[in-house]
């Protein structure tokens, strides 16, 4: 019998890659999308199936993780073997602007799913999309499953709640509930306000002459950036392991935002030079400033130094990241240039 998966957050970057990954594995995939006044399914357009088809293996349902009744009803109706909770207000900076909504979706959302699992069928496996943001003001370097959490945003705090409620339900009700603690992962499908996509899109537009300047915040923040395709495979592997556990997924390599800018500029053959310090630091192209720093893009509290240690997943799950930062940049830039040339 085919396995059935239910993905909350199916319209997001990871939801799109995970859907395709599971369909390739022969799963029937159900996805939860939010009602919106404009189309929000662009990332899954290529796998969309006519709802009137008799034999479908990709089926969408309206729902929202802030709505406990809908969550319960969708799980009851779809009878999944596996649930992936990817639904979240996932922008850290935005979480300072809408902390209450972020907590409702990112903390209580997971509780609503877990509680439905316990009430409906304790055999359903559950994956919670945890984040390296939970390490925040990092207490060890690099960070692994034993590193204490010190979240620095309403987003990070909400994800810590989800992490612990997942463990609590696993221990209390003996369900197969797991946390992935994933470090930043990017792709051509990344949301446009995350820093990698913003840099790639901005520099491609500057090269094309359709944008004059790119405004950024903290250039010295360091991240461990992987490719989303590698990371959705890890999510699936986590649920196939013999025991429900918690796993760090990362590349183990670290770059600053400024290094990421330099790598993208190099790939695009844009010869930029940096001058100035702090808020006055600028990148110039042919003596013209093309990147400037704006204090509005700094966060009330930032996470400055993330680098993961995924030894456990490498050793036990035999997972490893196949795509490095150079592949990631090539993939993101080529996609963006294609978009520009197809307009
Ligand atoms: P994303 O592109 O922002 O996608 C988030 C998804 O959640 C979208 O489908 C979004 O729907 C949906 N969503 C938001 N609020 C919801 C709600 N109240 N009810 C139902 N669905 C809701 O994020 P991503 O990069 O794919 O990340 C997937 C998950 O992994 C998130 O939980 C994120 O916090 C976590 N994570 C991401 C990373 C990373 O680097 N990408 C690292 C660690 C953890 P709309 O399309 O309608 O907005
Ligand atoms: N977004 C953004 N925009 N970030 C900027 C900018 C800018 O203009 N300039 C500098 N940064 C810095 C941020 O201050 C942060 O330190 C870093 O770039 C990365 O920011 P984001 O790309 O927004 O990602 P994030 O690390 O805050 O959060 C992402 O990764 C988490 C995993 O660690 C999100 O995907 C989260 O959902 C995920 O949990």
Summarize this structure briefly.
This protein is an alpha/beta fold and 343 residues long.
Layout of helices and strands:
Blueprint: E1 4-8, H1 13-24, E2 28-33, E3 58-62, H2 68-78, E4 82-85, H3 92-97, H4 99-120, E5 125-131, H5 154-173, E6 177-182, E7 185-186, H6 195-208, E8 214-216, E9 222-223, E10 226-227, H7 228-240, E11 246-249, E12 255-256, H8 257-267, E13 272-275, E14 282-285, E15 288-293, H9 311-317, H10 325-341
Parallel strand pairs: 1-2, 1-4, 2-3, 4-5, 5-6, 6-11, 7-10, 8-15
Antiparallel strand pairs: 9-12, 13-14, 14-15
Description:
With 343 residues, this protein is of the alpha/beta class. The chain folds into two domains: 4-188 and 226-252 and 305-323, NAD(P)-binding Rossmann-like Domain (Rossmann fold, 3-Layer(aba) Sandwich); 195-219 and 257-301 and 335-342, Alpha-Beta Complex (UDP-galactose 4-epimerase, domain 1), CATH 3.90.25.10. It has helices spanning 13-24, 68-78, 92-97, 99-120, 154-173, 195-208, 228-240, 257-267, 311-317, 325-341, and strands spanning 4-8, 28-33, 58-62, 82-85, 125-131, 177-182, 185-186, 214-216, 222-223, 226-227, 246-249, 255-256, 272-275, 282-285, 288-293. Strands 3-2-1-4-5-6-11 form a seven-stranded parallel β-sheet, sandwiched between helices. A hairpin with a 6-residue loop joins strand 13 (272-275) and strand 14 (282-285). Helix 1 crosses helix 7. The N and C termini lie far apart (44 Å).
List keywords for this structure.
binds guanosine-5'-diphosphate-alpha-D-mannose; single chain; Rossmann fold; alpha/beta; UDP-galactose 4-epimerase, domain 1; four-stranded mixed beta sheet; 343 residues; seven-stranded parallel beta sheet; binds NADP nicotinamide-adenine-dinucleotide phosphate; 2 domains
């Amino acid at each position: 019998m085919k396995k059935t998966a239910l993905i909350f957050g199916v319209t997001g970057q990871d939801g799109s890659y995970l859907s395709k990954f599971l369909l390739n594995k022969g799963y029937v995939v159900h996805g939860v999308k939010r009602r919106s006044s404009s189309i929000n399914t662009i990332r899954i357009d290529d796998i969309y199936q006519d709802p009137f088809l008799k034999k479908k293996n990709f089926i969408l349902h309206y729902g929202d993780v802030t709505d406990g009744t809908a969550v319960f009803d969708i799980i009851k109706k779809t009878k999944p073997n596996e649930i992936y909770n990817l639904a979240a207000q996932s922008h850290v900076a935005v979480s300072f602007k809408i902390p209450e909504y972020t907590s409702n979706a990112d903390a209580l959302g997971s509780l609503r799913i877990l509680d439905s699992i316990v009430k409906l069928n304790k055999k359903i496996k559950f994956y919670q999309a945890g984040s390296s943001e939970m390490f925040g003001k990092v207490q060890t370097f690099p960070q692994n499953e034993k590193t204490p959490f010190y979240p620095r945003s309403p987003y990070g705090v909400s994800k810590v709640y989800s992490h612990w409620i997942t463990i609590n339900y696993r221990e209390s009700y003996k369900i197969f509930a797991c946390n992935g603690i994933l470090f930043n992962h990017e792709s051509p499908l990344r949301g446009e306000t995350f820093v990698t996509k913003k840099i790639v899109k901005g520099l491609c537009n500057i090269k094309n002459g359709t944008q004059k300047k790119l405004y950024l915040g903290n250039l010295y923040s360091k991240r461990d950036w992987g490719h989303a395709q590698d990371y959705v495979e890890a999510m699936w592997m986590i649920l196939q392991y013999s025991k429900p556990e918690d796993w760090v997924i990362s590349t183990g390599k670290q770059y600053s935002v400024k290094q990421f800018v330099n790598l993208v500029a190099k790939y695009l053959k844009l010869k930029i030079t940096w001058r100035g310090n702090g808020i006055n630091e600028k990148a110039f192209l042919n003596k013209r400033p093309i990147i400037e720093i704006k204090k509005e893009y700094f966060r009330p509290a930032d996470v400055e130094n993330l680098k993961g240690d995924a030894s456990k997943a490498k050793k036990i799950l035999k997972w490893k990241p196949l795509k490095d930062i150079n592949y990631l940049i090539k993939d993101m830039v080529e996609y963006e240039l294609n978009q520009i040339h197809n307009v």
